[in-house]
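Work through this:
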Amino acid sequence: RIGLYWMMDGDSGDILLSVDDGEPISYRAWDHYCRTFARADSIFIPHELPYGKHTMHLRITDTRAPESKGHAIRIGAFLVS
């Protein structure tokens, strides 16, 4: 599996993430808790990958939650298991 450890904050936006040229999946680094505080969180792509070499594409989009103040994406680490 592969994922991200990132910040959820009041100015966070959305990303599109795909692996091995698969269909991009949209993730949002903002939720209703971001109105009052920032915090670290993690996400994982929802499918298992076979052992071996893989390519991940990540794109910061121009979309965001209506209440978000920006499009920031703050990645602390890439997660691999």
